[in-house]
Every structure is written in structure tokens, then in C-alpha cells.
UniProtKB/TrEMBL annotation, chain A:
Its main location: membrane. One of its GO terms (molecular function) is phosphate ion binding. It comes from Ureibacillus terrenus. This is Phosphate-binding protein. Residues 42-291 form the PBP domain.
From TrEMBL, chain B:
This is Phosphate transport system permease protein PstA. It is a multi-pass membrane protein. It comes from Ureibacillus terrenus. PANTHER family: PHOSPHATE TRANSPORT SYSTEM PERMEASE PROTEIN PSTA (PTHR43470:SF5), PHOSPHATE TRANSPORT SYSTEM PERMEASE PROTEIN PSTA-RELATED (PTHR43470). InterPro entries: MetI-like, MetI-like_sf, Phosphate_PstA. The lineage of its organism: Bacteria, Bacillati, Bacillota, Bacilli, Bacillales. One of its GO terms (molecular function) is phosphate transmembrane transporter activity. It is found in: Cell membrane. Belongs to the binding-protein-dependent transport system permease family. CysTW subfamily.
């Protein structure tokens, strides 16, 4: 018995020392080092290197699909992408920790200033369209169409509890229940900008970083209203109703043609110029991204840009290389 | 001759037995309620996710197709993470506990340290994430690596391990130490050959429970910006990685409903790992405790 105990203790200490020693030997590579090229048997250029990004959870499904497909083309390029939200992603982009940043809104002035101070030059690429979809419960048969003014009236904080009848007297005399994306998301920021025009969102709104919580919330309360990216509506069409905004229904066609204004928005990838110059692997990944973003966006529920926009992007990419 | 009134006693006993039964059922119901909630949770997760668990689930990376999504990167990442967390936190934790219990004099300063370690155990994990982001990711330039995350997680569970190890060391009878000194052993010999072996079961149990907390934590990793979309395996301790809870959270956020089931499958895997770790802790405790 006693032996057993000594044995396990030595094993414990021994293994920890051993692992510690192993750890010391591994001299890993930094985030964006190495961009060597190797020739494979068939003569095709095989790149190595690593690419790292972070940002919007709205853009993440597109990136995931692209990373998945890119692995088949360049298996030795290590792409890692975080999902910290547009704001969280920019913070890391400014700190120089990431090569690219996904965003579901334009860059804010203070973010651009911080980048300038950090001496980071960047380029913005559009990769797809999304339509922010305002949804209500399936039982809601009154709010079929809302104007932007009405949306603002519904969502703005004006110090009192609002009822549907406050917006239109013919609507039910019931309190509105609100669900919205979290304040770190680009979706929230975009809505804040175009609908609320900078004023406060109703305080009683339940904010969630997980859009499925909004889906659940709106689907279970007949007097609820919420908004999120088009992909979430597409997946939950049978449980929720989309509201027409200014008379336009959020459909693929309306978003693509630019009729669904002002709630359709482009999704962006912001790229660190210096890292494109430095890393062949990163350049190659971005090229792959721009060539395939349309297909991948459609595959995960977003809307592709017109082909010219991608070509324009590729030209921009070549210009900074 | 009668010493007591039997009927009176019987009467009293009846009411006492009744009272006893009432309390017994209250405690029983409390236990059952907790177990029922747990069973419902586990039942729901298993019924939702079990069909997604197959060999491919362990050998595939995550994917935009729910049926192709796998847990490979996260599972390997979590194992690597444990390789950093386990040695760092256990060595530092046990060493601190030995110092505090065996060497440190009883004075204000050491009391202050002791009180603070107990306080640290109650600090929210997000705070440790911020600490890790500032110190390990940025100041030390480790990036979003396994090492940076591992050290952060070690700090997170260190107080728990220290407290557990302290308790374990304290339960070693004083007589054993004195016997050791009487045989002419030095302080170090006493600590290493008498105290630590006797305290080992307690230390290991505490450590394993703390480690299972580390493997399930999401908040510090999210704050540090540990990536989720990753289609490669780490090739060293400075490599980027993702971990099980991050991957599960990412799946749960996806719009497609099928991903909820993939997330449930991920939870099952995480749960199995936790149950395994906890049963090892129980095994160790049972194996050694019989001796006293």
C-alpha cells in the first residue's frame, strides 16, 4: 500500500517535470510568422503559414465555410478565427493581434483613429449582404408593415412602458416585449445608427449575444418583437413572421437589389495591409475568400454581392500587395 | 413492579416516530428534486445529441454542415490545455499549501495571505480572463496560445487547489510529524516522506475537481479571444487552439437548428470527460482513505 502511494507521488511529480521540460523545448511560431513555400509532387505551390482573424458573429458562418473549403486547397496554412463580435474583433485588430477583422458594420471613427495611432493601415472589403430582419410572433396579425419612423417609435427609450396601441390605435392594448442582439454586436450598432439614430434602445429590451435566444423569445410571446440577421430568419421562417419595412419584405431579391433599405447592410472584412505584404499565405487566403465569398454566403443564408464588387475587391487586394 | 407507564411511553413514541418520518420525507424530497432536475437535463441533452456522436464526430473539424461537424480541434485543444494547467496549478498549489501550513509562522502577514487566497477562490472567472489577456496574451506576448490560456486557467483554479491541499495537510495528525522528528528526520524529510503522502488523497481529490472546473470554463477563454473557427491541430504550446466549451457555445449560437443537436453532442463529450475525472477523484479517495 505504502509503495503504491510513493509510486503515484513520484509519477505525479515526475510527469509534471517531464511535461514542463517538453513544454520548454517546443519553440512555437507566433501568430503570423512563416510564409515559406514548398513545391509538391504535382508542382503546385503549397503555402505554409498562419492567418488569424476575429470579429462579428454574423460574418462567422461565412468565414467558417471559407476556412473549411480553403483547407482542401492549402492544407498547411493555419487559419484561426475568433467570434468576439464586431467591436471585440476591432479591439484585437487595433492591438495588432489579428490579420483581419470581420465586421457587420462600418468602422467607427474612434476605432479608425486608434488604428491610425497604432500605425496600422487597413483596407475594407465587402463580402456579402445581410438584411436585418424585424420579426414578430407568428400570431401577430397586426404589425405586417412598419415604417422606419414606427420602428423608431417602438424601439426608442422614452421613459414609459409602450403598448402596441400606442403605435397604432387599432392594434392591441398590450405591452410590447423586446428582444435584441447584444451591444457588442454590429447588428445592434447598425440598428442603433439607422433606426434609433443614436438614441437609447428601450431599457426593457432583453439583450442577448446568442440570436437563438431572440428567436425563442419572440416565438413564445405573441406581443414580442425582435431583430437579427437574415440567416436566423431564414432558419426559423415557420416560427416567426418577418415585418415589411417601408413596405418591402426582406427577401433575397429585395436585399440583393438594394430595395430593402435602410436595413440591408453589407458585411465586411477589414484587412491589415502590412500583413498582406508580409505573408504570402494571408494574401492567398484573402484571394480565396474574395473569389468564394459569394457562394459561401449563399450557402449559409446570406446574399451574394454583384460579381463586379468581388472583382473590385480582388483588384484592391492586388494593389496593396 | 412497574418502573414506567407503558401506554404513556408508547403514545409519546408514536408522535416522535411520526415527526421523524416527516423530516425524513422532507430530506428525501429535497434530494429527489435536485436529482430530478439533473436527470431531466442529462436526459434532454442525451436525447438531443446522442445521434450525432459517432466516430466522425471525433475525427472531423467543425463544419458549416451539421452532420459533418466534429469536435476534433476542440477536444485536442482541451487536452493540450490540461497538459499546461495540471502541472502548473498542482505544483504551485501544493507548494504554496506546504509553505503556508508547514513553514509559515503565525503572523499578520501570513494571515493576510491566507485570507486573500480564500478570497481569490471567489473571484469571478471573467476577471481572470482579463488578467490573462493583459499579462499573458499582451504583456508577455504569448498570443492566444495554449500556454497563455493554460496559465490563466491555472491562476483561476490555483486558490481552490491551495485551499484543498491546506485542508488535506491539516488533517495529518500532529503525532505523525512528531514521530518523524523523534526519529531524527529533518523538516524537509518530514514534509516529503510523512506529511505529503498522508495528505495525498485529499490533495489529488481537490486538484482533480479543480481541473474539471478548468476544463469546463468558457468565460476566461472568450475574454482572451481564443478563436473558435480552427481547422488544424495545435503543434506546440505556443500554437493557437480552441477548447470544448468555446466550440459548444459557438454551435449553440448558430442559426440552423441542427447545430443545437451538435452542441448537445459536444456537451455529452464534455460531460463524459468530467464524469471520468470525477470518478478518478472518487477512486483515489476510496483507495487511500480506508487506512485511517
Amino acid at each position: 500500500m505504502k509503495k503504491w502511494k510513493y509510486l503515484s507521488m513520484t509519477a505525479l511529480l515526475g510527469s509534471t517535470l517531464l511535461i514542463g521540460a517538453c513544454g520548454g523545448e517546443t519553440s512555437g511560431e507566433g501568430t503570423n510568422s512563416g510564409n515559406g513555400m514548398e513545391q509538391t509532387e504535382n508542382g503546385e505551390a503549397q503555402l505554409t503559414g498562419s492567418v488569424s482573424g476575429d470579429g462579428s458573429s454574423t460574418v462567422a458562418p461565412i468565414t467558417e465555410a471559407l476556412v473549411e473549403e480553403y483547407k482542401a486547397v492549402q492544407p498547411n496554412v493555419q487559419v484561426s478565427v475568433g467570434v468576439s463580435g464586431t467591436g471585440g474583433g476591432f479591439e484585437k485588430f487595433i492591438a495588432g493581434e489579428t490579420d483581419f477583422s470581420n465586421a457587420s458594420r462600418e468602422m467607427k471613427e474612434e476605432e479608425a483613429r486608434a488604428l491610425e495611432e497604432a500605425g496600422i493601415e487597413f483596407t475594407k472589403f465587402e463580402i456579402a449582404y445581410d438584411g436585418i430582419t424585424v420579426v414578430v410572433n407568428a400570431e401577430n396579425d397586426w404589425a405586417k408593415n412598419l415604417t422606419i419612423e414606427q420602428l423608431k417609435e417602438i424601439w426608442i427609450e422614452d421613459g414609459k412602458a409602450k403598448k402596441w396601441s400606442d403605435i397604432d390605435p387599432s392594434w392591441p392594448d398590450e405591452e410590447i416585449v423586446y428582444y435584441a442582439p447584444g451591444t457588442d454586436s454590429g447588428t445592434f450598432d447598425y440598428f442603433d445608427e439607422v433606426v434609433l439614430e443614436g438614441e437609447d434602445l428601450v431599457r426593457s429590451a432583453q439583450l442577448s449575444e446568442d440570436d437563438n435566444v431572440i428567436v425563442q423569445g419572440v416565438a413564445s410571446d405573441p406581443y414580442a418583437i425582435g431583430f437579427f440577421g437574415y440567416a436566423y430568419y431564414l432558419e426559423n421562417k415557420d416560427r416567426l413572421k418577418a415585418v415589411k419595412v417601408n413596405g418591402v419584405e426582406p427577401t433575397r431579391e429585395a436585399i440583393e437589389k438594394g430595395e430593402y433599405t435602410p436595413l440591408s447592410r453589407p458585411l465586411f472584412v477589414f484587412v491589415n495591409n502590412a500583413k498582406i505584404k508580409d505573408s504570402e499565405a494571408f494574401y492567398d487566403f484573402m484571394k480565396f475568400l474574395l473569389e468564394n465569398a459569394g457562394d459561401m454566403a449563399e450557402a449559409v443564408g446570406y446574399i451574394r454581392l454583384p460579381e463586379e464588387k468581388y472583382e473590385e475587391g480582388l483588384k484592391k487586394l492586388d494593389a496593396i500587395k | 413492579m412497574k418502573y414506567m407507564d407503558e401506554t404513556a411511553v408508547l403514545k409519546q413514541i408514536k408522535s416522535r416516530i411520526r415527526k421523524n418520518n416527516i423530516w425524513k420525507s422532507v430530506f428525501f424530497i429535497a434530494t429527489i428534486l435536485a436529482l430530478l432536475a439533473l436527470a431531466m437535463l442529462i436526459g434532454r441533452i442525451i436525447s438531443q445529441g446522442a445521434s450525432f456522436i459517432d466516430w466522425d464526430f471525433f475525427t472531423n473539424f467543425s463544419s458549416r454542415f451539421p452532420e459533418k461537424a466534429g469536435i476534433k480541434a476542440a477536444l485536442v485543444g482541451s487536452i493540450y490545455l490540461m497538459l499546461v494547467v495540471a502541472p502548473t496549478s498542482v505544483i504551485l498549489g501544493v507548494a504554496t499549501a506546504v509553505y503556508l501550513e508547514e513553514y509559515a509562522k503565525k503572523n499578520r502577514f501570513n494571515d493576510f495571505i491566507r485570507a486573500n487566497i480564500s478570497n481569490l477562490a471567489g473571484v469571478p472567472s471573467v476577471v481572470f480572463g482579463l488578467l490573462g489577456l493583459t499579462i499573458f496574451v499582451r504583456m508577455l506576448g504569448l498570443g492566444k496560445s495554449i500556454l497563455a490560456a493554460g496559465l490563466t486557467m491555472s491562476l483561476l483554479i490555483l486558490p481552490v487547489i491551495i485551499v484543498a491541499a491546506q485542508e488535506a495537510i491539516r488533517t495529518v495528525p500532529k503525532e505523525q510529524r512528531e514521530a518523524s522528528y523523534a526519529m531524527g528526520a529533518t523538516k524537509w524529510q518530514t514534509v516529503f516522506c510523512v506529511v505529503l503522502p498522508a495528505a495525498l488523497p485529499g490533495i489529488l481529490t481537490g486538484s482533480i475537481l479543480a481541473l474539471s472546473r478548468a476544463i469546463g470554463e468558457t468565460a476566461p477563454l472568450a475574454v482572451m479571444g481564443i478563436p473558435v473557427i480552427i481547422h488544424f491541430l495545435p503543434d506546440g504550446l505556443l500554437s493557437e487552439f480552441t477548447a470544448l466549451p468555446m466550440q459548444i457555445y459557438d454551435w449553440a449560437k448558430r442559426p440552423q437548428e441542427a447545430f443545437q443537436s451538435v452542441a448537445a453532442a459536444g456537451i455529452i463529450v464534455l460531460m463524459i470527460i468530467l464524469v471520468l475525472m470525477n470518478s478518478v477523484a472518487v477512486m483515489i479517495r476510496n483507495k487511500f482513505q480506508k487506512r485511517y
